[in-house]
Amino acid sequence: MRSLWLLMHLTGFVLWIGGGLSSMIIGVRGRSEDRYIQGAVARLQSMLHRVLIGPGATITVLSGGFLTAQVMATGIPPSSWLMAMQLAGVLGALLVLFVSIPTSSRLARVEPVGETARLFDALRGRQATAGSIA
């Protein structure tokens, strides 16, 4: 049973980090494109957040909690490195779930030209900051 939880933990981590790196590369490359194309870039990033990054962060945190509970059940106290990893993982996942995903969804609905151009740029900056931290 531990092997299944470890597989889930690693799979979630790959989804989270892989999706995050993909989103970052698309975002960096998309900044040099025409403003109309930047709307399509934002929609692609939103899809990556909903399909890969969010589920990956959730799976990673849940499976990591279960794996830690298994370690604690053996009577061995968890190391400080494990606790630091858990704290960083939970904070990163909360940032993904409550800042990055809602921001990317809103960004996907805003047009990069016209009246909403300033809002688009502000949301894109917030998304870049939150994604880099998470």
Protein model, in words:
The structure is a single chain. 86% of the residues lie in helices and 0% in strands. It has 134 residues and is mainly alpha-helical. α1 packs antiparallel against α2, α2 (35-73) runs antiparallel to α3 (80-109) and α3 runs antiparallel to α4. The chain starts with a helix and ends with a helix. The mean pLDDT is 91.
State the total count of DSSP E strands: 0
- Total of DSSP H or I helical runs spanning 4+ residues: 4
Please state roughly what percent of the residues sit in beta strands, choosing from under 5%, 5-15%, 15-25%, 25-35%, 35-45% or over 45%. Answer: under 5%
Radius of gyration: 17 Å
Unreliable parts? none
Q: What's the assembly state of these chains?
A: single chain
* End-to-end gap: 29 Å
Mean pLDDT: 91
Shape: elongated
The sequence of SSEs as H and E is HHHH
The biggest sheet, with number of strands, parallel, antiparallel or mixed sense and barrel status, is:
none
Please give the share of residues in helix: over 70%
> What structural class do you assign from the helix and strand content?
mainly alpha
